[in-house]
Queue: 2 jobs
Job 1
Amino acid sequence: MGKVQGFGHNGPKGTYILNVKPKPKSLFEILCDNLKNAKEKYNVVIPWYIMTSRENNNETVEFFEKNNYFNYPKEAVKFFMQGELPMVDTEGKILLNEEGIIKEAADGHGGIFEAMFKNNVVKDMKQKGIEWIFIGPIDNPLAKMVDEILIGISKECGVLESGKSLVKSNPEEKVGVFCKKNGKPSVVEYTEITEEMANELDKNNNLVYGESHINCNMFNIRGLEIIGNQKLPYHSAFKKATYLDENGNIIKPEEPNAYKFESFIFDAFNKLEDMLIFRVKREEEFAPVKGKEGVDSAETSVELYNKYYGLD
């Protein structure tokens, strides 16, 4: 879980305040509403495990303390930190941070599996008798952390993992899509699809590669144990990174200068034999906050949230 930058907020993503009705709420509080509603409906306290990074862990915990855990049982909320990997420059040399220590960056949302085992999260889940685990993003206020229907269908189909999908709005939409690679469930990124593939239609005139992955995933505890014992591949991203040069000067580049490495959660899908793809409606379950204005922004997120809850 990183930080939201570039539109007036430099804290952990979950602390970002959305101007929803009837009163503004942080993303953390909005998602916590899911758990409080389930607690009231089923008379059960659902454990909430929150992955943080070294960069934002203290700030996240302090936010929860300051807000009294949004009146959810404190003992049901556990924080754990994801791993980090060294950053390198364009020549492959490891960078040093401002303190002269190897510069590292969070290892991506796919790092959640390894982090869950290293921090005894899976062990804690097993001790609590937890069978199904929802893993999703913090920046989607319409994410259903408690979805009885998805659990029921997953059990009925006998799968150990499930993922929610949306129909692509158009062939050019920049989203990863579900597919099969070598007979195993997978996701292909929009950067990897040719124009011909993106526009390919099936016999019903629907896009062949049209099921968008929205990072709302469900895993059975047995599936997590299988995935947790295997390494995921790393992807590189070219970023701007402040560093200490060989002369002891702190360099703040204006252009990308370093590679960070991260794994993606969907790279774990092919570790299991099959998965359920559950198509949902965009206006009911997808309102991501990626920027301040425009597509997938705080503005559109608030609009979708208010409309879904009948508050517009």
Job 2
Amino acid sequence: MKSASYILVFFISVSIYAQDSDYVMSSYLNEGFKAPNTHYIGEAWLNRLLQADDDLAYNITKATFKANSTLDWHKHTSVQVLIVVAGEGYYQEKGKEAVKMKTGDIIKCEKNTEHWHSSSKHSDVTYLALYGGKKPTIWTEVLIQENYDNIAQKLEQ
């Protein structure tokens, strides 16, 4: 989708004006750190590109989930936007059907909406997660492997 490309170019352009361009590109290209297996199954890498503080109201985190990796159910106290920059994954809000997400997709999740997102069974996924404030993610329920497998089978048909 063209809009995802425009948004990504906008964020990179703004960052270049705000910071040294070599730092911006190396930060974005850096895979980040391997997240501890606390609220997910599989392998996830996080790179906190921007963090909210007294002068900045939002966070931008680049997340890469290796194939067959899942996040648990969770919610945020602000709107969250996911911009898929590579690969394929799944996204589901509580009470709704899961959907497949792919490169170029932009997903907006309203504040306090329980949801989960993950890589697909056979593809890594990398996305930029934009969300507000300094409040932590609220983890609500474990997404068990069997449920993920059933959703994956349905979405891959």
